[in-house]
Amino acid sequence: MNNPSAGPSSKTKVGSSQSSETSFKRKRGVFQKDLQHMMYGFGDDPNPLPETVALVEDIVVEYVTDMVHKAQDIASKRGKLLTEDFLFLIRKDLPKLNRCTELLSMNEELKQARKAFEVDEEKLASTE
Amino acid sequence: MQTMKQSKDPFEVAFEEQEESPPESPIAADENETQTPAAAAASGQGDDVGTSVPPSLPSTTTGAAISIGAAGPIVKSKEEDEEEDEDNMEIELGKFPPSGDPDKMAKMQTILSQFTDGQMNRYESFRRSGFQKANMKRLLTSITGSSKISVPMTIVVSGIAKMFVGELVETARIVMTERKERGPIRPCHIREAFRRLKLEGKVPRRSVPRLFR
């Protein structure tokens, strides 16, 4: 099975000419490594079964796909897809909603921190 | 998955490769202990702490102490620069964002201090694991068809997806205890867990009517 478009090496995507393709054959095992750690963290074995990881990946991709489609439906009235559309989708699911707002505010804080860091660096450079 | 032409198990190879990057490869020190860390932590603590640990640990809601590790998923998503990872983590630990409850933070600290090695290992994996930003971005781009996927959107979707994985795995473990089975989670458990989540309405269903039934 020497299909050049499939296989683990395609994950790293050196040539991004196929970035708009939606062939799932190419996407096998994209999240495999991340998922192994994640499943262990949530309660699975330290070495989850490969077929389990593959199934979870399929389910997650389907979940994200369905959610994005729903978000697009909501956003189609306005035109552009925004982050707020996803937040609207999960508004009933409080743990997820809280987590997302937390992540977003942390992202903002990090951005501010990085900006401040750069300003300080400039100051140091100019005083020297 | 792929053909195991290599001499080793593909996961072993993957775990060895993983040595270079920050998240440690979870090695099974003692399987029984890591089996139910939440339950073990609950039994180790007092009752009031114990009842709050299992639900709050996996689904990080407003936990203030989580703010330390909340940098985890975001930090890890910048995996281009490994050193930056460490620096960012230290910035976060030093900043100690006051967005949280000092009570909750103190509680969290007491719990964390009493973790066994296996529990700490698992907790670390829980905190630091996440979807690669690049991969998620690629997936989102292919789904939406549009080119511009903002960084916050990637962060939000990654967070939601990670919590969904958590729901799947936890429900699968519940299914396993009901069936009195042990060991690694098998696909049949995941399928049953997925079915239950659908019944609970936690999975977005397409409202488009199916043409072919």
Automatic annotation (TrEMBL), chain A:
It comes from the Eukaryota. It comes from Coffea arabica (Arabian coffee). Belongs to the TAF13 family. PANTHER family: TRANSCRIPTION INITIATION FACTOR TFIID SUBUNIT 13 (PTHR11380:SF5), TRANSCRIPTION INITIATION FACTOR TFIID/SUPT3-RELATED (PTHR11380). It is found in: Nucleus. This is Transcription initiation factor TFIID subunit 13. The keyword Manganese does not apply. The keyword rRNA-binding does not apply. GO terms for molecular function: protein heterodimerization activity. Keywords: Nucleus, Transcription, Transcription regulation. Residues 9-20 have a biased composition (Low complexity). GO terms for biological process: transcription by RNA polymerase II. GO terms for cellular component: nucleus. InterPro entries: Histone-fold, TFIID_TAF13. SUPFAM superfamilies: Histone-fold. Pfam families: TFIID-18kDa. Residues 1-27 are annotated as: Disordered.
TrEMBL record, chain B:
Gene3D superfamilies: Histone, subunit A. One of its GO terms (molecular function) is RNA polymerase II general transcription initiation factor activity. InterPro entries: Histone-fold, TAF11-like, TAFII28_dom. GO terms for biological process: RNA polymerase II preinitiation complex assembly. Pfam families: TAFII28. Residues 1-88 are annotated as: Disordered. It is found in: Nucleus. Keywords: Activator, Nucleus, Transcription, Transcription regulation. GO terms for cellular component: transcription factor TFIID complex. Residues 51-72 have a biased composition (Low complexity). Residues 111-196 form the TAFII28-like protein domain. Residues 1-11 have a biased composition (Basic and acidic residues). PANTHER family: TRANSCRIPTION INITIATION FACTOR TFIID SUBUNIT 11, TRANSCRIPTION INITIATION FACTOR TFIID SUBUNIT 11-RELATED. Belongs to the TAF11 family. TAFs are components of the transcription factor IID (TFIID) complex that is essential for mediating regulation of RNA polymerase transcription. This is Transcription initiation factor TFIID subunit 11-like. It comes from Coffea arabica (Arabian coffee). The gene is LOC113709250.
